Amino acid sequence: MSSSSTPPRRGEKSEAAPVKPPMRDALVAAAFQLFLERGYEQTTVDDIVTLAGVGRRSFFRYFPSKEDVVFPDHERCLADVTAFLAAEDGTAEPVRRVCEAVRLVLRMYTENPGFSVQRYRLTKQVPGLRAYELSVVWRYERAFADHLRARLAGQPDGSLRADVIAAAVAAAHNNALRSWLRADGEGDVHTEMDHALGYVQSTLGPAPDGGPAEEPKDVVVVVSRRGAPLWRVVQQIEATLEK
Questions:
Q1: CATH architecture of 71-204
Q2: What 3-state DSSP class applies to 101?
Q3: pLDDT digit string (tens) for 107-124?
Q4: Does an H or E element contain 193, and which?
């Protein structure tokens, strides 16, 4: 038996074999390595599985398409968002609840800033990936709208408000997130997100006292000739308000 196979003696440290990443993570790492080296369009699924050291069946067990390997965590995140909204007992303020739900998406991005920035750069370069990303955003927006429709059912323009709020929350999230990604993941994205979502809540949420939004006030326009005495103008205004 060779010395290299001799077990270490007591007190001696053995060199631990490097831990291999899970197959799913290995496929993502291989894919992005090739995307950076060769380009997205020039990389095939066969190239990815060869570098990862697995077969094609293993790839499609985790990812339906090459596009999906670029966005590996969105299915899990969308499930988390849907479950978070479904767990609401009907007492939370609807706009605030959806704003809290979209923070789960932000958390997914901030868990691995380097990967998120890398994906952002890649997506900007490949039109097909930008279109795919829009479809992902639409799925989140639909989840928000479905929840809001149920919460606002029976209210005036409930369905319309649900769609508008859902779109605004998605847009505010993307505005803060992309600003952070353009800065290479530097800066306080949570403060930026607070500002963006706070704007949505102050604009589309309930009035500060918790009651319904204030009804728009009537506007009175009075036409008077130049040089008319002030008492005459006041008299005209009073007469108009009494109508």
A1: Orthogonal Bundle (1.10)
A2: helix
A3: 999 999 999 999 999 999
A4: helix 189-204
